[in-house]
Design goal:
The protein is mainly beta. It is about 10% helix and about 35% strand. The longest helix has 21 residues. The structure holds calcium ion.
């Protein structure tokens, strides 16, 4: 059935392409609110992180498809002066690609000439690089009204002139006396730039905030964890949260940082936000005596004008395993039980694929999409997980649990294809042994997980449920969110593989952990095409059309600098880099560029 549908699209490709091409370079104006709202229907561009507000990463382009994939090749291999691992999704507007990478360095790349137009370096202080959580990465920028917005690693939200790369304004979004970092892509919703941050491993207090896109003035701030109970709450939603915490959590912070997912439904005027794990990880240290610890590991529905909470759903009450729910939230309209439901779907770290009514927050289904031992399932009456006996790790015990803190799904973007009705999840299975750190004492600005993690290499340990998984094993799962079950799966060796993009050409593209770019058929998961890019750490692919031609682009690679991405002093990025480093790869039909010619000469 899916195949017939796909063939029909391929058959009409030649008729449809000129029309799509005609609209390609007629924008001639900056990204505005209307373009953001209609991003899904403009096949030629990629103007916001997840391609559209629903974060689908689906493209209607079909010039590249199974019938001509053998002609797909590289048109550009652009070596980047970057350190750390590549995680960013580039944006494309009006013939220019905006790329961010380590620290929040941004450059504009001219699709006409294949040259860099400008580059901006936020010059993040060396101290932040050393103490910040968790990797010198950046996942993307936002575009709006002639500005490019980036979160620098030190928590500054910076608005750049899209034409010149010059700073228009900057705002410090995080306290500078603690280990907050900003690595996620900001989003622009109703004239406000929404930005989160990371640092839950350092037990910082999580929040996200919104800034006026023109002036850089703070509009509102939403703390995900209550503060000092003797002081007034900053947000009415925290009154309820306060009752779910014990002890002196506020003296540490509590975690719940928001470092990745934002989605927006303009019709409902609701913004959806995923929150992070507890800090410290071990609830016994964070909230002695227990409690759900709202709003950790939760999905929040919030009014973008005010930051007011409308509903919430907590995926992992009383988290002790670093099970963040910051993972991508995708908004879909699905036919469930004979009627169209406006839903959101999420595949958070804890391994359950959630389908919720996005207007009311009602849980519609939750099924495991990977190897899980911490819970038996989700109680559909209460919406709560049914934890397995022994999933927690009281002091003095060591418990193997699946998944480990890497989660079954992490930052790697998934994608949704309306033609196949499938979500493509870049996942991985793992087991780790959790134990409480003896005599844990909170130290501000330091790693404060309060837990130790080891590989499950002692066979005498009692395993919960299914046997342990050695290592962290990657897979690509094609998931049917209506039936809430898997339709096909590709398994890999060690992970992490990159994010996915899917197209009307019945294709799914993914970069693998060992530096290959791969295309699968979206309906069946057949590997149709592959290229060895001789890299590691692939980010997430995008696709766009330029001058009537469809392109696929992806960042890949990791600097081989032994300092693990740290850069000394005030020198320019990448000066001390040696060997193959990160690159921007662009593919199209009949691309003839070779990877080798971009590698440094020996
Ligand atoms: Ca974490």
């Amino acid at each position: 059935m899916f195949m017939n549908q796909s063939l029909r699209y391929w058959g009409t490709a030649l008729v449809l392409l000129p029309a799509a091409g005609a609209s390609a370079q007629t924008h001639g104006k900056p990204v505005d609110a209307k373009m953001l709202r209609n991003a899904a229907s403009d096949a030629t561009e990629w103007v916001t992180y997840g391609r559209d507000y629903s974060e689908t990463r689906y493209s209607p382009l079909r010039q590249i498809n199974a019938s001509n994939l053998s002609r797909l090749g590289l048109t550009t291999v652009f070596p980047m002066t970057a350190l750390g691992a590549m995680e960013a999704t580039p944006l494309v507007h009006d013939g220019i690609m905006y790329v961010s990478h380590s620290y929040g360095i941004v450059f504009a790349f001219d699709l006409h000439t294949g040259e860099k137009i400008w580059e901006y370096d936020p010059k993040v202080a060396y101290e932040v690089q050393q103490h910040g959580c968790c990797g010198v990465v950046n996942r993307g920028v936002a575009l709006y009204q002639g500005r490019v917005y980036v979160g620098a690693m030190d928590g500054r939200l910076i608005a750049l002139d899209a034409k010149t790369g010059k700073v228009d304004w900057e705002a410090q979004t995080t306290p500078t006396d603690n280990a907050y970092t900003s690595t996620g892509a900001p989003r622009v919703i109703k004239g406000k730039v929404v930005i989160g941050n990371g640092g839950a491993e350092y037990a910082v207090r999580g929040f996200f905030s919104a800034y006026d896109a023109v002036t850089g003035k703070l509009a509102w701030k939403f703390y995900t964890v209550p503060g000092d109970p003797s002081k007034p709450v900053e947000n009415p939603a925290l009154t309820k949260a306060m009752k779910t915490w014990n002890g002196d959590w506020w003296k540490m912070g509590g975690g719940g940082t928001v470092w990745d997912s934002f989605a927006y439904d303009p019709a409902a005027d609701l913004m959806y936000v995923g929150t992070g794990n507890g800090g410290p990880w071990d609830r016994d240290y964070r909230s002695p005596g227990g409690g759900d610890n709202l709003y950790l590991s939760s999905i929040l529905a919030v009014r973008p004008d005010t930051g007011k909470l409308v509903w919430y759903y907590q995926t992992t009450p009383g988290d002790s395993w670093d099970y963040t729910a910051v993972q991508q939230i995708t908004l879909l309209d699905l036919k469930i039980g004979g009627r169209t439901r406006k839903v959101l779907v999420q595949a958070p770290k804890n391994g359950f694929f959630y389908v919720l009514d996005r207007i009311t927050g009602e849980l519609l289904s939750a099924e495991p999409y990977g190897h899980i031992t911490w819970a038996k399932g989700i109680d559909m009456k209460t919406g709560r997980p049914i934890e397995n006996e022994g999933a927690r790790y009281p002091a003095g015990t060591a418990q193997p649990v699946s998944p480990g803190p890497g989660g079954v799904h992490n930052w790697h973007p998934m994608s949704w294809n309306p033609d196949t009705g499938l979500v493509y999840i870049p996942g991985s299975n793992s087991t780790m042994v959790y134990s409480a750190t003896p005599n844990f004492a909170y130290k501000k600005g330091s790693w404060n997980s309060g837990s130790s993690i080891t590989a499950p290499n002692r066979p005498e340990m009692p395993f919960i449920g299914p046997p342990a998984v050695p290592g962290q094993n990657g897979f690509l799962s094609a998931w049917d969110p209506v039936a809430n079950k898997e339709r096909w799966r590709v398994t890999y060796g060690p992970t992490f593989n990159g994010g996915t993009v899917t197209t009307a050409g019945n294709l799914v593209f993914e970069g693998t952990a060992d530096g290959h770019m791969v295309a699968y058929s979206a309906d069946k998961g057949e590997k149709l095409w592959e290229m060895n890019l001789q890299e590691r750490n692939m980010a997430s692919p995008i696709t766009y059309e330029f001058d009537g031609k469809q392109y696929i682009a992806i960042l890949g690679g990791r600097a081989s600098n032994p300092a693990a991405g740290l850069r000394g002093g005030a020198g320019a990025a990448g000066k001390d880099q040696s060997g193959p480093g990160p690159k921007l790869f662009i593919f199209a039909l009949d691309g003839k560029k070779s990877v080798e010619e971009a590698l440094p000469r020996k």
